Amino acid sequence: MKVLHLSHIDLDGYGAQYVAKHFFDDITFFNANYGKEIMVRLEEMFKILTRDKTLFLITDLNLTLQESEFVQEKICELKIEGYDIELCLLDHHISGSESSQKFHWYFLDTTQSACKITFETLLSRYPLLDSAKEQWLRDFSNMVNSVDIWMSEGENFEFGKVLMGAIASIKEPNRLMFEEKNREFKFSLLEKSREFLYLPRGEVELDNALFLLKKEILGGNPKEETMDNIFARYLVELLEDKKSECEIFYGEKRGFLSYMLGSVSVVGNQFLCKNPEFDFILDVNARGNVSLRANGNCDVSLLASECFNGGGHKNASGGKIEGFKESFFYEDIKEQIQNILEERA
């Protein structure tokens, strides 16, 4: 059975997905914050559906009545067309009560976190054979439950506070450009927390170890390398994997487009040094602010002036895109930028 799993972007949401991946071999994850992104991800999930038996799983997201009606109608249409699909939504937000009263597939329990609901629901339907794994996931979900619904006297509440803060602090690699790597980073941290949960004062041990753990997850040597250098190398490798996908052109100059990269000074310069076939790197954020870096092969101050009402230095400049349209998809951003570059070249 295939599983398509959409969840929220906090500890509870990723925790539910971390739990689910232990129950299924063929599972594809999606994440969304509240607002417009939920519908975007739902439509994305429907687009990749196959004729295989599929569990459409949603956790830690309270759908509005309109969103729930959209899902219900879409699932009904697909079933009529012969798709073998099961829909299951596991939520704990009281704001989902209207949808839960109308749709049988919308399970709501406001007394528990979505992570704990997910563990208990999946365990009842797909029992685990590994007792040690089951115990770990039970303890993990109880810990997430304590902190997510703020039971200060609950099981491992202080440990959960540390882990909740750690997951919330992971902004890079950014979720919009490197979604799978962002999620993989968070899953790795959740997995490594297992080494600390059963220790005396485990929350303190985890809190002290977090910086070193992040270095290890990023593939660095914690005792020999600084975080800046480890992270820059890690990001450059991610960018190199996307060279063909992210190339843009300004006349005869070849550039690399990143979206919300942030660390463009250090990472951008390292990327250009390692990949001299690129003349410049352009990073744009969600507000349309543009950062440009070059390594002697392109005057980005001229590019910034002509294309983005900006300026600066020959190898480091910036600007802003008026009327920039934010998107949850990199392809939309690239199309906007390339159109501007072609118009002004």
Number of helices: 15
Low-pLDDT residue intervals, each spanning 5 or more residues: none
Structural class: alpha/beta
Radius of gyration equals: 23 Å
What best-fitting shape do the alpha-carbon axes yield?
A: globular
Count of distinct structural domains? 2
Strand content: 15-25%
Largest sheet: 6 strands, mixed
CATH architecture of the largest domain: Alpha-Beta Complex
- Specify the CATH class of the largest domain: Alpha Beta
Order of helices and strands: EHEHEHEHEHHHHHHHHEEHEEHEEH
Mean pLDDT: 95
Helix content: 40-55%
CATH fold type of the largest domain: inorganic pyrophosphatase (n-terminal core)
* Spatial arrangement of strands, main beta sheet: 6-7-8-9-11-10
Per DSSP E runs of 2 or more residues, the count of β-strands stands at 11
- Amino-to-carboxy terminus distance: 51 Å
What does this structure look like?
The chain is α/β, with parallel strands linked by helices. It folds into two domains: 2-156, inorganic pyrophosphatase (n-terminal core) (Alpha-Beta Complex), CATH 3.90.1640.30; 244-344, Roll (Diaminopimelate Epimerase, Chain A, domain 1). The protein contains 15 helices and eleven strands. The strands form two sheets. It has a six-stranded mixed β-sheet with strand order 6-7-8-9-11-10. Helix 5 (114-125) packs antiparallel against helix 6 (131-148) and helix 7 (157-169) packs parallel to helix 10. The longest helix is centred in the middle third of the chain and has 18 residues, at 131-148. It is globular and about 60 Å long. It starts with a strand and ends with a helix.
